[in-house]
Amino acid sequence: MSVLVEISQQLQKGKAKNVKILVQQAIDEGIPAQEILEGGLLHGMGIIGEKFKNNEVFVPEVLVAARAMNMGAEILKPLLAEAGVKASGKVALGTVKGDLHDIGKNLVKMMMEGKGLEVVDLGIDVPPEKFVEAATNDNCQIIACSALLTTTMGVMQEVVDAAEKAGIRDKVKIMIGGAPVTQAFCDQIGADSYTPDASTAAEQAAKFCAQ
Ligand code: B1M
Fold this sequence. Notes:
Blueprint: H1 3-12, H2 16-28, H3 33-53, H4 59-80, E1 90-96, H5 103-114, E2 118-126, H6 128-137, E3 142-146, H7 154-165, E4 173-177, H8 183-189, E5 193-194, H9 198-210
Parallel strand pairs: 1-2, 1-3, 3-4, 4-5
The structure holds CO-5-methoxybenzimidazolylcobamide.
CO-5-methoxybenzimidazolylcobamide binds at residues 42, 45, 48-49, 52-53, 59, 62-63, 66, 98-105, 107-108, 144-146, 148-151, 175-180, 195, 197-198, 201.
C-alpha cells in the first residue's frame, strides 16, 4: 500500500500520531509536499466529508480527522513555503462569524506565510468589526475571509459593508474563499477576489501586496 493511501486511511480513522509519522515517512521518501497534502491529507478529508454528508460518520469522528489533518499539515508547512522572491505585506485572516471550520483557513495561512506575507490569524467565528479593527490597527493591506457554510457566507457581505463604514474600503483588498463561495458571489458582494484554493489565494495576496 502506498504511503499516501495509508495517510488518507489513518486520517479517516483520526489517528493523528500515525498521520504525523506517515507524513514524515512520505517526505523522507522524496514525495513532494503538495502531493502529500493533496493525495494523502486532503484525499482522506474528502472521504470523511462524503461520509459526513451521508450520515455515515458524525461530528466526533470528523473532529478527530480534522485534528489529524491539521497535525499532518503542520509538518508540511516549511516544505510548502515556496522558494524564490518573497512578497511583503500583512493579511488579517479569519473564518467568519458563526463558522467554526478552520482547516482551509489554516492552509491559506500556511501558503500565505510561505509567500513571505505576515498573517494576523483572527481564528474562527470572527465578527465583521474584528476584521476591520485588525486591518486598521495592524495596518493590513488585505482582509481574507473563509466560510464553509452556506449560512455564514452572507457575513462576507457584512465585512465589505463594515470596511466601507469604517472608511478603509479603498485601503484594503477583501479576499474571500471556502467551499460554497463562488466568483459570482464575490462580484455580488463587491469583494476584490475569490480564489478556489489556498495556493491561488496566496498568489493573489502576494500580487495585491506588490501593487
Ligand atoms: Co462541517 N460542514 N459542519 N464540520 N464540515 C461541511 C462544510 C459540509 C459541506 C458537510 C456536508 O454536509 N457535506 C456541511 C456544510 C453544508 C452547507 O452549508 N452547504 C457542514 C455542516 C452542515 C456542519 C455543521 C452544521 C454540522 C452540524 O453540527 N450538524 C457544523 C457547523 C459548525 C459551525 O461551523 N458553526 C459542522 C461542524 C464541523 C466540524 C466541527 C465537525 C468539522 C470542522 C473542524 C475544523 O475545521 N477544525 C467539520 C468538517 C471538518 C467538515 C468537512 C467534513 C470538511 C471541511 C474541511 O476542512 N475540508 C466539510 C465537508 C467537505 O468540505 N467536504 C463540512 C478540507 C479543507 C482543506 O477544505 O475548508 O474547503 P476547505 O478549504 C479549501 C478551499 O475551500 C479553499 O482552500 C482550501 C483548499 O486549498 N479556501 C479558501 C478555504 N478558505 C479560503 C479562503 C480564501 C481562499 C480559499 O481566501 C481568503
